[in-house]
Write a structure and sequence with these properties.
Layout (H helix, E strand, L loop, with lengths): L6 E3 L19 E6 L10 E4 L20 H5 L2 E10 L3 H13 L8 H4 L3 H5 L3 E6 L2 E2 L13 E2 L3 H7 L4 E3 L9 H15 L2 E3 L5 H4 L3 E5 L2 E9 L20 H13 L4 E7 L10 H12 L5 E5 L7 E4 L2 E4 L4 E3 L10 E13 L2 E15 L10 E4 H5 L6 H18 L10 E2 L7
Parallel strand pairs: 4-5, 4-16, 5-8, 6-7, 8-9, 11-12, 12-13, 13-15, 18-20
Antiparallel strand pairs: 1-2, 2-3, 4-17, 10-11, 14-15, 17-18, 18-19
The chain binds zinc ion.
Zinc ion binds next to loops.
Length: about 425
């Protein structure tokens, strides 16, 4: 394992209402990350040693123009991303049971993800989508339709290997400003970067930029809806309302602030539809036509939608549910972890050289793990010769559905790799 010097994690949140001058302010924090290349199974470790700005005198940090030693040594970066982390009540109960099984009280969400942990932790950068806000550690909590979930999910996401999460969703305003404030404070405490919601105008005014092995990567997050709730007119900075111009403007400012790769997370689409809507395809074309955006990652539909390559870049319209409990439809139990490998092709320019989909499934009925609800990796389960014929059948059906959805817009001929077993690529 190579040891890297501490690299700056720059939290450079976005501007929604303010003009950023050439000498605009940039908050910063430091990320220490160790690990080999993106193809190793070595766990990713990182540590936030400074908090992102909350609005008080952010520090000016000039973007570096010369490649760092890490940069020269590591011309490839792997990014994994997943769909909705949507904690229905039954998943809290599972986390209570898992904590109890370990001799503890409270909630332990890590076992829910344990079967996919190696996929997440081995990436250079792992991004989740935290669809809901969290409550105080002792509650009260609430489920659908206005979610306030146990905050113990946040350290669990960090422990399984996530480096940051997008937070703009139709549930961002479910507990108002206090829900957003509580959630972002908990993410800071856990060392999880965040993008999409903010505690102040100043925090909202800068794109979130993380530094991964010496490479600055901007994380943008926008949502098309707040489920009928409105952003307060004097706090429009609380969450990023999806507007193409706002997203593109932020991408431009992120690039100007030193981002070499810009990833846009977009909460959009039609729930339970496995087809990308005309609105999604139109926006994806517009976003990827911008030289300032390298990848679009979608969620919200709760089912898997296609990957599509547009102009040499990729959009994943929906990665489906990551963890959720929606038993009414089989398709809401299917998900995909997107794994994208970027290669540096010129100074401060990166291209996606491989796009992979790793199918997952929420095993809601505990078939795989003795009655416990678990998120499982389809290729891992199908590579396990000891599984029952029933589970193999269920996973093969899930895999077939996911493959059909992911490739419906030509992704197979454009090079998408769908992992079907642990040895397949
Ligand atoms: Zn949603």
């Amino acid at each position: 394992m190579m040891t890297l010097r501490p690299a700056p994690l720059t939290i450079v949140p976005l501007l929604c209402c303010l003009a950023l001058s050439a000498s605009g302010t940039t908050g910063h924090a430091t990320l220490t990350k160790r690990g080999g290349t993106g193809n190793t199974d070595a766990p990713t470790q990182q540590r936030l040693t400074e908090r992102p700005p909350e609005g008080n005198s952010p520090t000016v940090t000039a973007p570096s123009t010369s490649p760092s030693p890490d940069h020269r040594e590591s011309p490839e970066i792997t990014v994994v991303a997943a769909g909705d982390v949507l904690l229905h009540n039954a998943l809290w109960a599972q986390a209570t049971a898992d904590a109890k099984a370990a001799g503890r009280s409270g909630y332990d969400f890590r076992p829910l993800f344990s079967e996919v942990e190696s996929i997440i932790s081995s990436a250079d950068l792992a991004i989740c989508h935290l669809e809901t806000v969290v409550g105080p550690s002792g509650g009260p909590f609430s489920g659908y339709p206005r979610f306030v979930v146990p905050p113990q999910i946040i350290p669990a996401l960090k422990q399984v290997g996530y480096d940051g999460c997008s937070t703009a969703s139709n549930h961002s305003l479910d507990d108002g400003e206090r829900g957003i404030r509580r959630t972002l404070t908990a993410m800071d405490a856990a060392g999880l970067a965040h993008s999409g919601t903010a505690r102040s105008a100043a925090e909202a005014a800068h794109p979130t930029i993380v530094t991964v092995r010496g490479v600055r990567i901007a994380l943008l997050s926008y949502t098309f809806s707040f489920n009928g709730l409105r952003l307060p007119s004097d706090q429009a900075w609380l969450a990023n309302d999806l507007g193409a111009d706002a997203l593109l403007d932020e991408a431009k400012r992120a690039r100007a602030a030193g981002a070499e790769i810009v990833i846009a997370s977009v909460h959009w689409g039609v729930e339970y539809s496995q087809t990308a809507s005309p609105a999604q395809t139109k926006l994806a074309k517009r976003f990827l036509a911008s030289p300032n955006i390298d990848l679009v990652l979608g969620h919200h539909a709760h089912v898997v939608q296609p990957f599509e390559r547009i102009g040499g870049k990729w959009v994943v319209y929906s990665m489906g549910n990551h963890v959720a409990r929606q038993p009414q439809r089989e398709t809401t139990q299917d998900g995909v972890i997107a794994k994208m490998t970027f290669r540096r092709v010129a100074d401060r320019q990166w291209r996606t050289i491989t796009a992979e989909g790793i199918p997952t499934r929420m095993d809601l009925f505990g078939v795989y793990d003795a009655g416990a609800m678990r998120l499982v990796s389809i290729p891992a389960v199908l590579s396990d010769r000891s599984i029952s014929p029933y589970l193999r059948h269920v996973c093969n059906l899930s895999l077939d559905r996911t493959k059909a959805a992911l490739t419906a817009r030509g992704a197979a001929s454009d090079g998408l790799i769908i992992r079907q077993s642990q040895t397949s690529r």
